[in-house]
Design brief:
Layout: H1 4-18, E1 31-33, E2 36-40, E3 54-61, E4 65-72, E5 79-80, E6 88-89, E7 91-97, H2 103-108, E8 112-116, E9 129-137, H3 149-157, H4 170-177, E10 185-193, E11 196-198, H5 200-205, E12 219-226, E13 233-241, E14 247-254, H6 267-280
Antiparallel strand pairs: 1-2, 2-3, 3-4, 4-12, 5-6, 7-8, 7-13, 8-9, 9-10, 11-12, 13-14
Helix pairs in contact: 1-6
The structure holds calcium ion (3 copies).
């Protein structure tokens, strides 16, 4: 729990008690296998072919690190595409939403966490790494992509597990993302730390096994970062390809995020909100 959230909690505690989540984020979804939480995406909803097909996402936490893996047909450096402004279409950025808000609302409130892991993509932040206070932006227009999520679905790409097993239907996708622009990169945010890219063998050693779900793509990308950069509790993680041709979501829960040091000064706040915090965590 980051310090800034005490203020957010104080401001929102009363309202939060009265609100019923409309996004289903309270659910600790995903499929856990050997400590990895998996979201498996439709294998046939990558508009444009196998080079734009996401098959799955997986996240694992250890005592001090968070591991992320993505698999599909898109390499870390993307695919040549004559219609893109930079002649390349690759991965967008990865987002984590720890709030009870929809993606758009959390983005508008600059409450998302974002990770730029693809150094050659069109992210609007200058370097790879972990960012907080993130507002998302769309780069589909400069990547020969869809002007909206509605246009993607109206083009015939609605499939079972359209945004992965945790956001399986178009209706669910609209409820979380809305029907408008596909916000797929970090538009702005504050960098809080770096990521370390992981080799296939390192991922295997860490227990990653997309083959368990018959979801091994030709490209599997992985990285890790310090859990101290992050927030605990329920999350919705997601990423889209730069053109919006495919996207995947994973819901889960981070249990063991270390408490920041030096919180004694707001111990009273902690006591008052203790019940609320325990519930969130
Ligand atoms: Ca897919
Ligand atoms: Ca591009
Ligand atoms: Ca998808």
């Amino acid at each position: 729990m980051k310090l800034r959230n005490f203020a957010t909690l104080m401001a929102g505690a009363t309202a939060a008690l009265c609100l019923v989540s409309v996004t289903g984020q309270q659910a600790n979804a995903g499929t856990i296998y050997k400590d990895w939480n998996y979201g498996i995406d439709a294998f046939n909803d990558g508009s444009g072919g196998s080079g734009y097909e996401i098959k799955g996402i997986a996240i694992k936490e250890t005592s001090d690190s968070i591991f992320v893996a993505l698999t599909g047909g898109t390499s870390l450096t993307g695919t040549y595409a004559s219609g893109a402004a930079d002649k390349n279409i690759g991965w967008g950025d990865l987002f984590f939403n720890f709030t009870d808000k929809t993606f758009k609302a959390a983005s508008d409130a600059k409450s998302l966490f974002g990770i730029r892991f693809a150094a050659t993509n069109d992210s609007m932040v200058s370097s790879t790494g972990v960012y907080q206070n993130v507002q998302a932006a769309s780069v589909t227009a400069t990547n020969d992509g869809y002007s909206s999520l509605k246009q993607y679905y109206n083009s015939g790409w609605d499939r079972e597990n359209t945004q992965g097993t945790d956001l399986a239907t178009k209706t669910d996708a609209y409820a979380y993302f809305g029907e408008g622009s596909i916000l797929n990169v970090i538009g702005s945010g504050t960098k809080v730390g770096d990521i370390t890219m992981l080799t296939a063998s390192a991922l295997s050693t860490a227990g990653l096994d997309f083959a368990k779900f018959s979801a091994s793509g030709s490209q599997t990308i992985g990285f890790q970062f310090s859990k101290s950069l992050f927030e605990g509790g329920n999350y919705i993680a997601n990423t889209f390809i730069e053109c919006g041709n495919d996207g995947v979501v994973l819901k889960g829960n981070l249990k063991d995020v270390p408490e920041p040091s030096g919180i004694a000064g707001i111990a009273v706040v902690g006591l008052v909100l203790g019940g609320k915090l325990r519930k969130r965590r």
